[in-house]
Amino acid sequence: MARPDKLKLGTFVYTFGFNPAAWRHPDVDVNGANRIDHLLNVAKMSEAAKFDFMFLADSPAAAIGDPEALSRSPTKMNRFEPLSLISALSVLTERIGFVATASTSFYEPFNLARIFASIDHLSGGRACWNVVTSDHDETGYNYNFDGLPPHSWRYERGAEFVDVVFGLWDSYEPDALILDKASGLYYDKDKLHTLNHKGTHFQVRGPLNIAASPQGRPVIAQAGGSEPGMELAARTAEIVFSLASSLERNKAFAENVKGRMAKFGRQTSDLKMMPGVVINVGETKAEAQAKVNFLIDNLHPDVGRWMLGEFLETDLSGAALDEPFPMERLPAEPKGSKALFEELTDYIRKGHTLGHLIRHYAEKSTGNGITGTPTEIADFMEEWFEAGAADGFILMCPTLPASLADFIRLVVPELRRRGLFRDDYEGSTLRENLGLSLPANRYAAARQPG
Ligand SMILES: Cc1cc2nc3c(=O)[nH]c(=O)nc-3n(C[C@H](O)[C@H](O)[C@H](O)COP(=O)(O)O)c2cc1C
């Protein structure tokens, strides 16, 4: 029986596209990293196609590694800070949502609560925070640490961090503002609340000095698939970004996370599992493959080694491309994302050459990518959606705007023909369009009889 709901779509944004060689694509504006028009164009294309949101991955650090490789790959070396960017994009668009990544390991809760609440007002209720605890040493070096803090500490701090932010976002009850010039009353003092949080990592008095959000509170996304990651997602997340490499692995992950929600009093309909997928589409399979080949042929071998090494937390400089992956260089235990590490190491242990692995990752990320015709792409999405492995997809476009334009022109009409994707937005806020319930304000809820 077909699902009654429709799948959700988001545009994953690395400035020029997911593929590290994307900036060399003829359609790419090489100045796009420091001028708003390129990413505004991507936002407007996604909005015109009725996508749910634009997804900004991020890490508060320049990458560290082979200088030759980094000088050839702008992805992590020159990009906008995401909250600044979505503030600007949100006032230049009307309906598209904005998911910005911010780390609980290197921010203070009061700052982040205030920034996201402000962007939610600026955008009329289209802001979403992608909660991460960070995943590379280079971030820790910028925040008084000698590398990435331990996984357990990051999640302990992260869980408390999210609770404090939720508490601050509840400071003003939804109807606290009175705004009565005649009586001179601006807000109802009984509907503004002080948090007085004292915990292991934070001491935050509050209240937050901005009124309640137009969508109750900004939407919460989360990326991180380890045991504490799944607990945090089940307790707090409304969108989960995953990179599991197959339908079966995504389905198991979705069931694992959603299966934990009841104990937190949450409905599974309030969590959208959205795998990231790399899609290369063409009128014919050959045309789609030619687009992949162009990027792979323009991917400098040093950049390929750095890209894979960065994902696996190791340095692959000088490793032979026609030899199997140098397993001795693989760390015993990842510092960053356990989920991501596990996804790729299973594939690496199959004995492929390094050259093959670089090509595989550049074309398909951890493996959940597809190169093909519009019908093949729609079949792929319909199968994962109907199987419950995905409630939607985050499109990791190899190049921007070209791959996004291809998907919108070739695949969206097919998804609509099958009744799988919306023809128009359901509402004006991100929460309404995602079909998420409005979270109750804890103080207003406490007033309710019974
Ligand atoms: C699909 C996915 C995407 C991620 N994206 C980011 C990101 O953009 N920025 C970042 O700092 N960390 C990112 N992370 C890692 C998170 O910081 C995560 O909290 C941390 O690495 C722990 O991950 P784990 O729960 O999988 O062990 C991502 C993780 C996953 C699984």
UniProtKB/TrEMBL annotation:
Source organism of the structure: Rhizobium straminoryzae
GO molecular function: monooxygenase activity; oxidoreductase activity, acting on paired donors, with incorporation or reduction of molecular oxygen
Pfam families per UniProt: Bac_luciferase
Protein name (database record): LLM class flavin-dependent oxidoreductase
Residues binding FMN, per UniProt: 58, 101, 151, 155, 226
Flavoprotein among keywords: yes
Record-stated family: Belongs to the NtaA/SnaA/DszA monooxygenase family.
Residue span(s) of domain Luciferase-like: 29-389
Top-level taxon of origin: Bacteria
InterPro entries the record matches: Diverse_substr_monoxygenases (IPR051260), Luciferase-like_dom (IPR011251), Luciferase-like_sf (IPR036661), NTA_MOA (IPR016215)
Entry coiled-coil feature ranges: none
